[in-house]
Amino acid sequence: MIPAVRAVARAAMAARPVPLAEVQARAELLARFGHSYLVPVDVFAAFAAELTDRRRPGGPFAALCINGRRWFRYRSVHYDTPDLRTFHDHRERRRLRFKIRERLYADTGERQFEVKLKGRHGETVKHRQPLLPGDAALGPAPRGFLSSVLHRSYGIEAPTELGRSIETSYQRTTLVADGQRITCDAGLVCRDLETGRTIRADGGLVLVETKTSGRLAEADRLLRGHGLRAAEFTKYCGALSALRPDLTAGHWQPAVGTAFPSAA
After folding, report:
1. What is the DSSP string of 127-180?
2. InterPro entries, per this entry (predicted)?
3. What predicted TM-score, i.e. pTM, was given to this entire model?
């Protein structure tokens, strides 16, 4: 088993299981602030133990559990324009930027069409709409949803030319406390849907994302105590710049080199 996958599974089994409804009630956080960290497995083990310690003030973090499972397989297809508008808007840190993806929860078969935006204060705002079996991710209903979200939020028109850019797959455990959610991803594999090229993230790293309604979560403070700093990294932009050497990674380059050492 990949070391990062093993570490994430152990963290999940050490935590009290809670159902999805409780996670949504305690920390759904569709609008949130967050940071990403590339965490070595030994540091992750210590970090997870601190979060799930029963002596933690306010109680230990719990783990999302659905049908007896505490870690889950995710697959996302990311969409972009032919000139990679969403990639370049994020690389240049433009104010009105967005991402478009279809997410498949492989263990339950659930599919969601999702649009992620940047809010006025720098927070991430996620809008999503379920996809029914047989629905095309870029069919009339999802395109109408995309147009509505972008017009309502930014006052802009949705791009008319969209295509599949890359696919990402990984395993995830979600830890939750009141107002805080931490996703722990391992075994990240990314495939360029244009060229067919595939790249794997370092199996000794866990991608941790902290999510909270405030600027700094307890998890951020703990990770900083372990000597880690937030990384300039997202799965879509980081993977695409690693898969296509002709693209300039810019401020993501250090994190891309860490996450995908074979590309570096």
Report:
1. EEEEE-TT--TTSHHHHHHHHHHHHHHHS-PPPS--EEEEEEEEEEEEEEETTE
2. VTC_domain (IPR018966)
3. 0.93
> What mean pLDDT is reported for the chain?
91
Spatial distance between the Cα atoms of 243 and 263, rounded to a whole number of angstroms: 7
Residue ranges covered by each domain of the chain: 3-259
The string of pLDDT tens digits covering residues 134-181 is 889 999 999 999 999 999 999 999 999 999 999 999 999 999 988 888
Which CATH number describes the domain made up of 3-259? Answer: 2.40.320.10
Please tell me the distance from the alpha carbon of residue 171 to that of residue 249, in angstroms, as a whole number. Answer: 25
Residues 6+ apart with CB under 8 A from 55: none
242-253 pLDDT, tens digit each:
999 888 767 788
Dist CA 45 CA 184 (whole Å): 11
Share of the chain above pLDDT 90, in %: 69
Which tokens hold the place of 215?
A: 């600027």
Residue 231 is given by DSSP the state B
CB atoms within 10 A of CB 56: 13
Q: Supply 40's token pair.
A: 């070595």
d(CA 217, CA 176): 12
